[in-house]
Amino acid sequence: MHEAEKLEEAEFFLKQMASAGNDDKAYTYNLSAFISAARSILFYARSEAKRKSGSHAWIEQQESGSSVISFFTSRRNVSIHKEPVSPEKQLRVHIGETLHFSDMNDLLRIIRTNTDTVLFRDDKSVPSIQTALVADGTNWPYPSKVAMTAVYRFSEWKGAEDATTLCTTYLGRL
């Protein structure tokens, strides 16, 4: 009866989590709300199942047969009775480099160390240095493009999924 409303509520919080970016509090608060709303779906389903023959056994089978559902049941209980949900934050860093060439027919080899990026001709002879570029960008007019994205995880979950992916999986099983 009320499951559809709680499902919409959980989906709302899941969308908020996905759009939280690097805002830890926004992500964590929406995760906590998601866990409560999603868990309520099964509570309501159990309540209705008491009135229908065989439904209660089906719900029990769903809960016990899914590691994801069991995990969120446990996580919700811990969140309500022991401590707030606190996902681990990992940062994914992507560094993009741009190289510009002008009609060169030679094969090139790029070597990057902690201090220099050196561009060599790769002709198997003694390499002649084409350009030596200092990593701090002082003589390179095209700066690196750095993008960082936050990924949140449950330390208690042993799978590879991040928290948002796991929440999406959980909703799919309800």
- What topology, given as strand order, has the largest sheet? 2-3-4
Distance between the termini: 14 Å
Derived structural class: alpha+beta
The level of helicity is: 40-55%
What is the percentage of strand-forming residues?
15-25%
Written description of the protein model:
With 174 residues, the chain is of the alpha+beta class. It contains five helices and five strands. The chain has helices at residues 3-18, 24-49, 55-64, 67-81, 163-173, and strands spanning 88-96, 108-112, 116-121, 129-134, 145-153. A hairpin with a 7-residue loop joins β3 (116-121) and β4 (129-134). The longest helix is centred in the first third of the chain and has 26 residues, at 24-49. The protein is elongated and about 70 Å long. The relative contact order is 0.16.
Features:
single chain; 174 residues; alpha+beta; 3-stranded antiparallel sheet; two-stranded antiparallel ribbon; 5 helices; 20% strand; elongated
